[in-house]
Amino acid sequence: MSDKKIIVQFTLLTFCIAYLVSGSLIVLGQFGYSVHNWVHSVKEFGMNIPFAVYILSPAIASYIVLKKNNKILNFKEWLKTVFYIKNNIFIYLFVAAGLALYFLIHIAVSGRTEMMLPFYTLFLSLPGNLIIGGLEEAGWMLLLQPELDKKYGYVLSSVLVGIIWMFWHIPLFFLPGTNHGEGLINFWMFAVQLMSFRFFNGAIYKISGKGCVFMCVLFHTMFNAASPIFGTNTMTWPGTIAANTVLVLVSIVTVVIYGQKNVE
Questions:
Q1: Which of 2, 235, 221, 239 lies closest to 102, judged by CA?
Q2: How far apart are the first and last CA of the chain?
């Protein structure tokens, strides 16, 4: 099975799962269905399970396609690949620095100095944000972006996956109860963020090798957990442009420096 066919299979299966489930939930929203950001009951937990399937669609498709094409033996091997945590401390510092840089610039340019939630909520929300967000990268970065990188290079693969990621996110803006559930009002600001994150994840992939998937999962999880605390869920154009432009530039410079170092 060629890499091209695997990419096509993964992308089609991801969108089939995502759009089928989210489309059903959008319809059910007319009858009272809603996503719950903070779960307080068994009922609310149950209502979030279909939403989790939508968010996990890249991870689900990744496992199915890789298993079908004999790229992995079983689910245990898939999990070990996704959660391979043995990385140089520099990679962890790079992820932490990227998060800090993004939020500091966004806060400084937007003029917000207060935290919207207590800082300890970051740690409380990590498990939920691993499922609802972080594990997306078990699809995008375990399969799609690295394969496109081999064929098209760092910049173009980041742009292509960024565009695919935008389309995958569109149902999120029509699901009641999500942070984006008011329709496509802030879609383009969000799209800028999505594109810059593909560049940053692509840079993580370039410098971390085998452990790239977990590092991308970690970045995505931490970002989603920290966003409500620092108020970046309510985005402004100046903060969005400034923070994401810097993140893209840092990503490209990192890849260039790393590439030159390897050549030498």
A1: 239
A2: 35
pTM of the model: 0.93
Q: Where are the domains of the chain?
A: 3-263
Quickly list DSSP for 204-252: HHHHHGGGHHHHHHHHHHHHHHHHHHHTTTS--HHHHHHHHHHHHHHHH
Residue 236: per-residue pLDDT: 82
CA–CA distance, 94 with 97 (Å, rounded to integer): 5
For the chain, give the number of residues: 264
Intervals of the chain under pLDDT 70? 1-2, 113, 181-183, 185, 209-211, 232-234, 263-264
Tokens 């992820």, residue located: 95
